[in-house]
C-alpha cells in the first residue's frame, strides 16, 4: 500500500533515523519535532512499515483520534483503545490508545508487542509506578527486546530537565538515568519557520500594564498555588480589563484568538470582558460534550475568542489561530512552547501569529532551557568550549556587553568522545563515553581525582570524600579556627631570597581577611597554586599552568575565588588550611540573601 501523503524531507529523515537506530539497538529513543511539524504522519509511516504489533500511546483523546485518522488514511485499519472515545479494541496489529485506558486494563495487553510509540513523550516521568512505566514494564515481560520510541516538541520537564541522556550529534544531556536513552533526530523551531513549514510568530511586548507574579512562591515544578494567584489577581482588576481591551483592539484584523488564563476565576473574569456571542470558555470542569461543541464552533470560526485554563496546550489543532495572548505565569519552557505552538500551524492566507505575553514569563522561544532551571533570572544560554576535547557546550551563564562569557554554571563537558579508529566507543555496555573534563569539581583528598561537586565518593578510588558541610560544621565548633565567607580575592607579589612570592588575600563579606603565600621559585608550591587556581582559571574554560607571579597578576581578574576559607590559629598568625570552591550546601555563601 502506497502512502497517500508524501512525507516532507525531515519527516522521512525522522523515519529513517528510527529504523536505523532500532536495527542496531533496543535502547529507548526520542524524536524532537516542533509543534505543527506533523508528528502524526511520522507515526503513521512507522506503523505502516511495521510487521508486528505496535501500541501508540498518548494522554488525550484528541491525539489518539488524530494519530488513528492519519494511519487509517493509508487504507489500513487500526484499533482504538480509549474510554474517552468509547472504543476498546486491542486486536489489530496497530492500536492507538490513551495511556489512562491501557493502564486501567493491563490484562488486555498481554500480547507480544514489538514497538511502543509515545506521542507527547515529555509527559513520561522517571517514576517506576507511573502509568507509562507500568505499561512498558508489562510489555517488556512479553518481549525483552521491546522498542520504545517517544515523539515531542519539548524534550524536557521542569523538575527533571532533559528527558534523554545522549544526543545523536555527539553530546551528553545528563549523567543520570532518564526515561529515554537517545535523541535520534531533532529539528529546531527556527528551521521550520525559516523554511516555511510553520507560521512566523510575531512576538510583541505588552503595550499596557503587565501582571507581576514575581512575589509568589513557586513549587518544585515552577508553578504557583491557585489560591495565591487568585489573591494576587484580585488586585489587578483594572489591569485585566485594560489587557482585554487591548486584546480586542489587536484582534480586530485577526482570525482567531486563544487566551491562556492563570486560574478558573481569572478565566471567568476575562470572559466577562469579551463579547459574549464571540467567546467560549473551556476549563477542566467543562462538560466533555459542551467542550467538543465549543471547540468545533471555534474551529469553524463561529467564535473568535477561546479562553482556556491548562486544557488546550496539546492535542488541539486549529490552524486559523493567529493570535495568542498569554495571561498566565509559568517557568516551564515546555508549556510555553506548547502554548505558542497552538498558533504556528500553516493556514491559507495566514501571514503570522501575534504572540503577546502579559505575565512577564521572559521565555526565549528559539532557545529552550539548557536542561536545568535558570540559576538566576538574567542567565542566558552560553557556548563554552571544552579545553579537553574541544566540544562546544551550551550552559546557563552570563555575558558582557561584547558577548564574551564572563560566567557559566556548567559542571562537566557534555561531549561524547569519538571511538578509537576502527573500534567501538570505550564506554560501558558499548555506549559512547562522555568526556571526563570538569569545569567545576571536588578533588578527592586520597587520590587527587576530580569528581562532581556533589559527589560523596570518589569515582576513581571509591573512597569517601569529606562533605564540605561537615568541614564547615567541624571548623565552626573549634575555638582556634576561623571560617570566612569569601567575597573576593586580591593578589600581590613580593621578592624573596629565591625569587618571587605570590600573596593571596581572601576577603570575608564582613571585612575579615585571611592570607597565604606561594613561593613560585619552588616547583611544589607552584604546583599547589596551579592545582587550586590555575586549573579553575576562567571558570575552568581555559586552565593555565602559571610559572611566574607576573603572569598571575596580569590575569587575576579571571581567577576563581573560593566560597569559604578555613584557617587555624598558629602562635602569631592564621594559617589557611582549606579552600572550598563551588560550594553547594546548607550554609549561605557571601552576598547571598
What does this structure look like?
- This protein has 593 residues and is of the alpha/beta class.
- The strands form six sheets. It has a ten-stranded mixed sheet with strand order 4-3-5-2-6-7-1-12-10-11.
- The chain starts with 8 loop residues before the first helix and ends in a 13-residue tail after the last strand.
- The model is unreliable at 422-428 (pLDDT under 50).
Summarize the structure.
This protein has 593 residues and is an alpha/beta fold.
Which terms would index this structure?
593 residues, alpha/beta, 6-stranded parallel β-sheet, 28 strands, globular
Structural class: alpha/beta
- Strand order within the widest beta sheet: 4-3-5-2-6-7-1-12-10-11
Major sheet: 10 strands, mixed
In quaternary terms, these chains amount to: single chain
Stretches with pLDDT under 50, minimum 5 residues = 422-428
DSSP helical segment count: 14
What integer value in Å does the Rg equal?
Answer: 29 Å
Query: In angstroms, what separates the terminal alpha carbons?
Result: 66 Å
Tertiary shape? globular
Portion of residues in beta strands equals 15-25%
User: What is the average of the pLDDT values?
Assistant: 88
Blueprint of the fold:
Elements lengths: L8 H16 L4 E4 L6 H11 L4 E5 L2 H12 L6 E4 L4 E2 L5 E5 H5 L11 E5 L11 H12 L4 E6 L3 E2 L3 E2 L1 E4 L3 E2 L7 E7 L2 H6 L5 E6 L20 H8 L3 H14 L6 E4 L3 H10 L5 E4 L5 H12 L5 E4 L14 E4 L6 H9 L10 E6 L22 E6 L6 E8 L5 E4 L33 E2 L6 E2 L16 H10 L3 E15 L4 E9 L4 E7 L3 H12 L14 H6 L9 E6 L4 E7 L13
Parallel strand pairs: 1-7, 1-12, 2-5, 2-6, 3-5, 6-7, 10-12, 13-18, 14-16, 14-17, 15-16, 17-18
Antiparallel strand pairs: 3-4, 8-9, 10-11, 19-20, 20-21, 22-23, 24-25, 24-27, 25-26, 27-28
Amino acid at each position: 500500500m502506497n502512502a497517500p501523503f508524501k512525507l516532507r524531507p525531515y519527516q522521512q529523515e525522522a523515519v529513517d533515523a528510527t529504523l536505523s537506530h532500532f536495527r542496531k539497538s533496543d535502547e529507548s529513543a526520542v524524536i524532537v519535532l516542533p509543534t505543527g511539524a506533523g508528528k502524526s504522519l511520522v507515526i503513521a509511516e512507522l506503523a505502516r512499515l511495521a510487521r508486528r504489533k505496535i501500541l501508540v500511546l498518548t494522554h488525550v483523546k484528541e491525539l489518539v483520534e488524530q494519530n488513528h485518522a492519519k494511519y487509517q488514511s493509508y487504507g489500513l485499519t487500526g484499533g482504538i483503545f480509549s474510554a474517552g472515545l468509547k472504543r476498546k479494541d486491542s486486536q489489530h496489529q496497530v492500536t492507538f490508545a490513551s495511556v489512562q485506558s491501557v493502564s486501567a486494563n493491563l490484562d488486555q495487553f498481554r500480547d507480544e508487542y514489538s514497538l511502543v510509540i509515545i506521542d507527547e513523550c515529555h509527559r513520561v516521568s522517571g517514576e517506576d509506578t507511573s502509568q507509562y512505566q507500568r505499561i512498558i514494564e508489562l510489555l517488556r515481560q512479553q518481549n525483552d527486546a521491546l522498542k520504545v520510541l517517544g515523539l515531542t516538541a519539548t524534550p524536557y520537564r521542569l523538575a527533571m530537565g532533559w528527558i534523554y541522556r545522549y544526543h545523536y550529534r555527539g553530546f551528553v544531556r545528563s549523567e543520570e538515568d532518564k526515561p529515554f536513552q537517545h535523541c535520534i533526530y531533532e529539528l529546531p523551531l527556527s528551521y521550520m519557520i525559516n523554511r516555511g513549514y510553520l507560521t512566523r510568530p510575531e512576538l510583541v511586548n505588552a503595550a499596557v500594564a503587565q501582571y507581576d507574579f514575581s512575589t509568589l512562591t513557586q513549587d518544585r515544578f515552577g508553578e504557583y498555588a491557585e489560591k495565591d494567584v487568585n489573591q494576587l489577581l484580585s488586585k489587578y482588576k483594572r489591569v485585566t480589563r485594560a489587557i482585554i481591551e487591548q486584546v480586542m483592539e489587536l484582534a480586530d484584523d485577526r482570525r482567531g484568538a486563544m487566551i491562556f488564563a492563570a486560574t478558573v476565576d481569572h478565566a471567568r473574569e476575562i470572559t466577562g470582558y469579551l463579547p459574549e456571542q464571540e467567546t467560549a470558555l473551556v476549563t477542566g470542569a467543562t462538560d466533555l460534550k459542551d467542550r467538543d461543541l465549543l471547540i468545533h464552533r471555534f474551529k469553524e470560526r463561529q467564535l473568535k475568542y477561546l479562553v482556556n485554563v491548562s486544557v488546550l496546550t496539546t492535542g488541539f489543532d486549529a490552524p486559523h489561530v493567529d493570535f495568542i495572548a498569554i495571561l498566565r505565569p509559568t517557568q516551564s519552557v515546555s508549556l510555553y512552547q506548547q502554548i505558542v505552538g497552538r498558533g504556528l500551524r500553516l493556514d491559507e492566507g495566514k501571514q503570522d501569529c501575534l504572540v503577546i505575553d502579559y505575565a512577564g514569563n521572559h521565555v526565549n522561544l528559539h532557545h529552550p532551557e539548557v536542561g536545568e532551571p535558570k540559576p538566576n533570572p538574567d542567565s542566558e544560554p552560553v557556548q563554552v568550549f571544552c579545553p579537553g576535547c574541544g566540544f562546544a557546550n551550551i550552559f546557563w551563564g552570563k555575558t558582557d556587553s561584547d558577548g564574551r562569557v564572563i560566567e557559566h554554571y556548567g559542571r562537566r563537558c557534555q561531549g561524547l568522545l569519538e571511538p578509537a579508529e576502527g573500534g567501538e566507543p570505550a564506554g560501558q555496555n558499548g555506549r559512547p563515553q562522555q568526556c571526563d573534563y570538569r569545569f567545576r569539581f571536588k578533588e578527592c583528598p586520597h587520590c587527587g581525582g576530580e569528581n562532581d561537586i556533589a559527589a560523596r565518593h570518589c569515582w576513581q578510588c571509591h573512597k569517601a570524600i569529606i562533605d564540605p558541610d561537615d568541614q564547615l560544621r567541624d571548623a565552626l565548633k573549634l575555638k582556634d579556627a576561623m571560617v570566612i565567607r569569601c567575597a573576593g580575592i586580591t593578589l600581590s607579589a613580593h621578592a624573596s631570597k629565591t625569587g618571587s612570592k605570590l600573596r593571596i588575600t581572601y576577603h570575608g563579606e564582613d571585612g575579615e581577611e585571611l592570607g597565604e603565600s606561594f613561593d613560585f621559585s619552588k616547583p611544589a608550591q607552584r604546583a599547589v597554586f596551579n592545582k587550586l587556581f590555575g586549573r579553575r582559571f576562567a571558570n575552568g574554560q581555559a586552565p593555565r599552568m602559571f610559572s611566574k607571579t607576573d603572569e598571575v597578576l596580569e590575569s587575576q581578574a579571571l581567577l576563581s575565588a573560593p566560597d569559604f576559607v578555613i584557617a587555624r590559629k598558629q602562635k602569631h598568625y592564621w594559617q589557611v588550611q582549606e579552600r572550598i570552591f563551588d560550594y553547594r550546601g546548607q550554609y549561605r555563601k557571601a552576598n547571598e540573601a
